[in-house]
Amino acid sequence: MAPMDMEAVWLGAFVGAQVLVVFFCAIKANTYRERALLLHAAATLLGVMAVQSMMGRHALLPHAVFLLMLAIAGAQLLELVSHAGALRKARRWLLGASLVVLPLLAVASIFQPWCLPLGTVLWALVTAMLLRRAWPQSQPWAWWLVPGVGALILGSAALVWEAADAETSMTLVVAALLTIWSACIYLATGWRGRLFGETRARIKARNTIDPLTGLATPLVMEERINASRHMLRRYGHPSVLMLVQIENLQALAAEFGAEAAESAVLAAASRVRDALLRDGDVAARLTHARFAVLAEGVATGEAAANVATRILVAGLKEPLAGTTEFLRFRLVMAGVPTEEVPPRLLLNRLGARLDQELQATSERRIVTVGREELVSHLAELTA
């Protein structure tokens, strides 16, 4: 195969690789909502355009495209290091270079060849200053930025060299360096996105899942109560809110120790969760020995006969591990009212009624609070 044919094959391979990076960036950005990937896709497209303009021998047009590519690459770098602190001054420098200086130099480069080396030096200095300060807070994915930024600077140098020596073609070298840059920055962006995605997932789990029992948190319960009230108002879809108390937890702690009491809490959470009838029902841990349960799509009578009874039976199903004691639950329940009552206030009212039942040592295990009693008492509290 002739040397020119081999050069065309390699050029096609490099350009094709950059186009693949663009597709990967677009797909992942749409899936994970990563703006940095969209910016990298735009910069890589400009890299493809720069190579195409070099192949077409368009005088100084590749310089202008390359400077615009540097501008977008700078904006993408700003997005990558947005997590790092104490970078206000460096960010301003890179923002000014990317949004003001480099676009102006791109226009001027159509007439003056010295604009590309000037813009590249400016971009390299500001980028080095930003990376030096962000480096300790950007491990380990920042290691991929070094070969990526280096390849981009070398690509600009190769383009300047070609402009200085008209008999030398650096198209293949520039295409190879841009491919290395595009791949390295894509890997760095993807690695960073995965790390930050895992962090966001952990934060979300911490805010929505109780670490001890695996049930929902009170915040999730309050959101679900508001949603169930909306469903009741709009579609007449009823929901029932219950509070479940482990009545004999203190006795278990006194007889078998604190570890047995902790084990009882875990067992109670598991049995409450298993007693729920539908996937839409939710249970949350409010205090050490108290849980809230929201049963959607059922009226108060049906919830008492099915869900509440199943919870009571679940506690008496089998003794706790290592003991002969069973879990004894006591429940207070009420239908979610249509009135605009804060969920926390609603939970507090049911909690006060549950405390009354515990102090009275009544034999009733399931207590239903009527709407009139619930709303009137809440109206007194909010008055």
TrEMBL record:
UniProt keyword list: Membrane, Transmembrane, Transmembrane helix
All copies of domain GGDEF, residue ranges: 196-368
Name of one Pfam family that matches: GGDEF
Superkingdom of source: Bacteria
UniProt xrefs under SMART domains: GGDEF
Annotated TM spans: 6-25, 37-55, 61-81, 93-111, 142-164, 170-188
Recorded coiled-coil stretches: none
Gene3D superfamilies (UniProt xref): 3.30.70.270
InterPro entries: GGDEF_dom, Nucleotide_cyclase, Rev_trsase/Diguanyl_cyclase
Name assigned to this protein: GGDEF domain-containing protein
Organism: Caenimonas sedimenti
